[in-house]
């Protein structure tokens, strides 16, 4: 199970934290790991901020082309990882950011 993280100004959004909480509840019910995927550029600080949460894995997809959200760029980066890891469920915060 995955949560696609949303961030603004190098801060993980509340919507992402809520999705992580819901994802952890669901993943525990199915005895699965919960992973968070963060897309963007220069993300090490964001990854560290999630290290105190209950997620099992953090995937960083870094590229200067991902600095600004565009659905085409995000999808192009996510498809290979989705095919490789085959998550059972993907949770995405629903906000005006993307």
What would the keywords be for this entry?
single chain; 98 residues; alpha/beta; 4-stranded parallel sheet; two-stranded antiparallel ribbon; 6 strands
Could you please describe the fold and organization of this structure?
The protein is 39% helix and 21% strand. It has helices at residues 14-29, 44-50, 71-85; strands spanning 2-4, 7-8, 11-12, 35-40, 57-62, 90-91. It has a 4-stranded parallel β-sheet, sandwiched between helices. A two-stranded antiparallel sheet has the order 2-3. The chain is globular, with a radius of gyration of 13 Å.
Main pleated-sheet profile: 4 strands, parallel
Morphology? globular
According to DSSP, the number of beta strands is 6
Number of discrete helical segments: 3
Strand content: 15-25%
Q: What's the pLDDT, averaged over the residues?
A: 90
Rg measurement, Å: 13 Å
- Sequence of strands across the biggest β-sheet: 5-4-1-6
Low-confidence spans: pLDDT under 50, at least 5 residues?
A: none
| Run of helices and strands | EEEHEHEHE
Q: Give the % helix.
A: 25-40%
- The secondary structure category is alpha/beta
How many angstroms does the end-to-end distance come to? Answer: 20 Å
